[in-house]
Amino acid sequence: MRPLALAIAIVAALGVAAEVFASSLPPDVVGLLSLSYEGNLPTWFASALLLLCALELQSIAARAETWRRHWYVLAIGFAVMSADEVVGAHELLSTIWSGEGPLHYGWVVFAGALVLAIAIAYVPFLRAQPDRRRFLLAGALYVGGALVLELPLGVVAERYGEDGLAYALVDAVEETLELAGAAYFLATLRRAR
Protein backbone atom coordinates (compact mmCIF):
# COMPACT_ATOMS: atom_id res chain seq x y z
CA MET A 1 0.00 0.00 0.00
CA ARG A 2 2.88 2.40 0.72
CA PRO A 3 4.08 2.63 -2.91
CA LEU A 4 0.49 3.19 -4.06
CA ALA A 5 -0.08 5.83 -1.38
CA LEU A 6 3.12 7.60 -2.44
CA ALA A 7 2.11 7.46 -6.11
CA ILE A 8 -1.33 8.87 -5.26
CA ALA A 9 0.25 11.66 -3.21
CA ILE A 10 2.57 12.54 -6.09
CA VAL A 11 -0.20 12.48 -8.72
CA ALA A 12 -2.48 14.57 -6.48
CA ALA A 13 0.25 17.07 -5.54
CA LEU A 14 1.30 17.53 -9.17
CA GLY A 15 -2.34 17.97 -10.20
CA VAL A 16 -3.03 20.61 -7.55
CA ALA A 17 0.28 22.39 -8.27
CA ALA A 18 -0.58 22.47 -11.98
CA GLU A 19 -3.88 24.18 -11.19
CA VAL A 20 -2.51 26.60 -8.59
CA PHE A 21 0.34 27.67 -10.88
CA ALA A 22 -1.63 27.34 -14.13
CA SER A 23 -0.99 30.94 -15.16
CA SER A 24 2.78 30.39 -14.90
CA LEU A 25 2.91 27.03 -16.66
CA PRO A 26 2.55 26.09 -20.31
CA PRO A 27 -1.03 24.89 -21.00
CA ASP A 28 0.29 21.49 -22.11
CA VAL A 29 1.87 20.92 -18.68
CA VAL A 30 -1.38 21.85 -16.93
CA GLY A 31 -3.30 19.54 -19.26
CA LEU A 32 -0.87 16.71 -18.62
CA LEU A 33 -1.03 16.92 -14.80
CA SER A 34 -4.42 18.39 -13.85
CA LEU A 35 -6.85 16.10 -12.07
CA SER A 36 -9.69 17.96 -13.83
CA TYR A 37 -8.57 17.09 -17.35
CA GLU A 38 -9.08 13.83 -19.20
CA GLY A 39 -6.64 11.80 -21.27
CA ASN A 40 -3.61 12.61 -19.15
CA LEU A 41 -1.35 11.15 -16.44
CA PRO A 42 -3.95 11.12 -13.60
CA THR A 43 -6.54 9.55 -15.92
CA TRP A 44 -4.09 6.83 -16.95
CA PHE A 45 -3.14 6.17 -13.32
CA ALA A 46 -6.79 5.91 -12.22
CA SER A 47 -7.63 3.62 -15.14
CA ALA A 48 -4.61 1.41 -14.40
CA LEU A 49 -5.60 1.10 -10.73
CA LEU A 50 -9.13 0.06 -11.65
CA LEU A 51 -7.80 -2.43 -14.21
CA LEU A 52 -5.47 -3.94 -11.59
CA CYS A 53 -8.51 -4.34 -9.31
CA ALA A 54 -10.37 -6.07 -12.16
CA LEU A 55 -7.48 -8.47 -12.76
CA GLU A 56 -7.16 -9.25 -9.06
CA LEU A 57 -10.92 -9.85 -8.83
CA GLN A 58 -10.80 -12.17 -11.84
CA SER A 59 -7.95 -14.10 -10.21
CA ILE A 60 -9.94 -14.46 -6.98
CA ALA A 61 -13.04 -15.52 -8.96
CA ALA A 62 -11.11 -18.22 -10.79
CA ARG A 63 -10.05 -19.78 -7.47
CA ALA A 64 -13.22 -19.09 -5.47
CA GLU A 65 -15.17 -22.01 -4.07
CA THR A 66 -18.05 -19.76 -3.05
CA TRP A 67 -19.48 -16.52 -4.41
CA ARG A 68 -17.66 -17.09 -7.73
CA ARG A 69 -20.31 -15.32 -9.78
CA HIS A 70 -20.16 -12.27 -7.49
CA TRP A 71 -16.39 -12.06 -7.86
CA TYR A 72 -16.69 -12.29 -11.66
CA VAL A 73 -19.36 -9.60 -11.78
CA LEU A 74 -17.10 -7.34 -9.71
CA ALA A 75 -14.20 -8.09 -12.06
CA ILE A 76 -16.30 -7.12 -15.08
CA GLY A 77 -17.57 -4.01 -13.30
CA PHE A 78 -14.06 -2.83 -12.50
CA ALA A 79 -12.91 -3.50 -16.07
CA VAL A 80 -15.81 -1.37 -17.31
CA MET A 81 -14.94 1.36 -14.77
CA SER A 82 -11.32 1.28 -15.98
CA ALA A 83 -12.41 1.77 -19.59
CA ASP A 84 -14.91 4.46 -18.60
CA GLU A 85 -12.18 6.36 -16.76
CA VAL A 86 -10.44 6.83 -20.11
CA VAL A 87 -13.50 7.15 -22.34
CA GLY A 88 -15.78 9.11 -19.99
CA ALA A 89 -18.96 7.43 -21.23
CA HIS A 90 -20.75 8.07 -17.92
CA GLU A 91 -20.71 11.78 -18.71
CA LEU A 92 -22.92 11.11 -21.74
CA LEU A 93 -25.71 10.32 -19.27
CA SER A 94 -25.77 14.04 -18.46
CA THR A 95 -26.91 14.66 -22.04
CA ILE A 96 -30.01 12.59 -21.27
CA TRP A 97 -30.81 14.54 -18.14
CA SER A 98 -29.13 17.21 -16.07
CA GLY A 99 -30.49 19.36 -13.33
CA GLU A 100 -29.36 22.36 -11.39
CA GLY A 101 -27.09 22.84 -8.42
CA PRO A 102 -25.99 19.50 -6.98
CA LEU A 103 -27.58 17.69 -9.92
CA HIS A 104 -25.78 19.82 -12.49
CA TYR A 105 -24.08 16.63 -13.61
CA GLY A 106 -27.16 14.50 -14.17
CA TRP A 107 -25.23 11.26 -14.54
CA VAL A 108 -25.03 11.13 -10.71
CA VAL A 109 -28.73 10.21 -10.55
CA PHE A 110 -28.22 7.17 -12.78
CA ALA A 111 -24.97 6.21 -11.03
CA GLY A 112 -26.53 6.64 -7.60
CA ALA A 113 -29.36 4.29 -8.52
CA LEU A 114 -26.89 1.74 -9.89
CA VAL A 115 -24.66 1.93 -6.79
CA LEU A 116 -27.69 1.50 -4.52
CA ALA A 117 -28.91 -1.53 -6.49
CA ILE A 118 -25.47 -3.15 -6.41
CA ALA A 119 -25.08 -2.43 -2.71
CA ILE A 120 -28.41 -4.11 -1.93
CA ALA A 121 -27.65 -7.10 -4.16
CA TYR A 122 -24.21 -7.56 -2.57
CA VAL A 123 -25.25 -7.44 1.11
CA PRO A 124 -25.11 -11.26 1.54
CA PHE A 125 -21.76 -11.38 -0.29
CA LEU A 126 -20.29 -8.66 1.91
CA ARG A 127 -21.52 -10.29 5.10
CA ALA A 128 -19.66 -13.47 4.11
CA GLN A 129 -16.33 -11.66 3.57
CA PRO A 130 -13.82 -11.57 6.44
CA ASP A 131 -12.48 -8.25 5.09
CA ARG A 132 -15.93 -6.69 4.69
CA ARG A 133 -15.00 -3.58 6.70
CA ARG A 134 -12.07 -2.94 4.39
CA PHE A 135 -14.32 -3.50 1.35
CA LEU A 136 -16.82 -1.02 2.76
CA LEU A 137 -14.12 1.56 3.52
CA ALA A 138 -12.68 1.22 0.02
CA GLY A 139 -16.17 1.59 -1.45
CA ALA A 140 -16.94 4.59 0.73
CA LEU A 141 -13.74 6.32 -0.36
CA TYR A 142 -14.32 5.61 -4.04
CA VAL A 143 -18.06 6.36 -4.14
CA GLY A 144 -17.54 9.33 -1.82
CA GLY A 145 -15.19 10.80 -4.37
CA ALA A 146 -16.76 9.67 -7.63
CA LEU A 147 -20.39 10.25 -6.74
CA VAL A 148 -20.91 12.21 -3.54
CA LEU A 149 -18.35 14.96 -4.23
CA GLU A 150 -19.76 15.33 -7.73
CA LEU A 151 -22.74 17.03 -6.05
CA PRO A 152 -20.85 20.06 -4.62
CA LEU A 153 -18.73 20.06 -7.78
CA GLY A 154 -21.94 20.67 -9.75
CA VAL A 155 -22.73 23.67 -7.53
CA VAL A 156 -19.21 25.06 -7.99
CA ALA A 157 -19.41 24.50 -11.76
CA GLU A 158 -22.66 26.47 -11.98
CA ARG A 159 -21.47 29.35 -9.79
CA TYR A 160 -17.86 29.75 -10.89
CA GLY A 161 -17.47 27.69 -14.05
CA GLU A 162 -15.27 24.68 -14.72
CA ASP A 163 -12.10 26.65 -15.45
CA GLY A 164 -11.48 28.26 -12.07
CA LEU A 165 -9.35 27.26 -9.13
CA ALA A 166 -12.39 26.51 -6.92
CA TYR A 167 -13.58 23.87 -9.37
CA ALA A 168 -10.09 22.43 -9.75
CA LEU A 169 -9.59 22.09 -5.99
CA VAL A 170 -12.93 20.36 -5.36
CA ASP A 171 -12.25 18.11 -8.34
CA ALA A 172 -8.76 17.34 -6.98
CA VAL A 173 -10.26 16.14 -3.69
CA GLU A 174 -12.82 14.08 -5.61
CA GLU A 175 -10.25 12.41 -7.85
CA THR A 176 -7.85 11.80 -4.95
CA LEU A 177 -10.58 10.02 -2.99
CA GLU A 178 -11.29 7.85 -6.03
CA LEU A 179 -7.61 6.95 -6.31
CA ALA A 180 -7.39 6.22 -2.58
CA GLY A 181 -10.50 4.02 -2.69
CA ALA A 182 -9.26 2.02 -5.67
CA ALA A 183 -5.79 1.59 -4.15
CA TYR A 184 -7.20 0.52 -0.78
CA PHE A 185 -9.50 -1.95 -2.50
CA LEU A 186 -6.57 -3.38 -4.47
CA ALA A 187 -4.54 -3.77 -1.27
CA THR A 188 -7.53 -5.44 0.43
CA LEU A 189 -7.95 -7.86 -2.46
CA ARG A 190 -4.28 -8.77 -2.32
CA ARG A 191 -4.68 -9.45 1.39
CA ALA A 192 -7.67 -11.67 0.71
CA ARG A 193 -5.73 -14.02 -1.54
Would you spell out the secondary-structure blueprint of this structure?
Layout: H1 2-20, H2 27-33, H3 41-63, H4 68-87, H5 93-96, H6 107-121, H7 123-128, H8 132-148, H9 150-160, H10 165-192
Report what the structure shows.
The chain is mainly alpha-helical and 193 residues long. It has one domain (2-192). It has helices at 2-20, 27-33, 41-63, 68-87, 93-96, 107-121, 123-128, 132-148, 150-160, 165-192. Helix 3 (41-63) packs antiparallel against helix 4 (68-87), helix 3 (41-63) packs parallel to helix 10 and helix 9 packs antiparallel against helix 10.
Structural class: mainly alpha
Q: Mind summarizing the main beta sheet?
A: none
Mind telling me the C-alpha Rg?
Answer: 17 Å
Low-confidence stretches: none
Number of domains: 1
Percentage of residues in strands:
under 5%
> Helical stretch count?
10
What is the number of E strands? 0
Shape estimate: globular
In percent, how helical is the residue content? Answer: over 70%
Q: What sequence of helices (H) and strands (E) makes up the elements?
A: HHHHHHHHHH
Provide the residue-averaged pLDDT.
Answer: 93
Condensed summary:
By secondary structure, this protein is mostly helical. 78% of the residues lie in helices and 0% in strands.
Entry keywords:
single chain; 193 residues; mainly alpha; globular
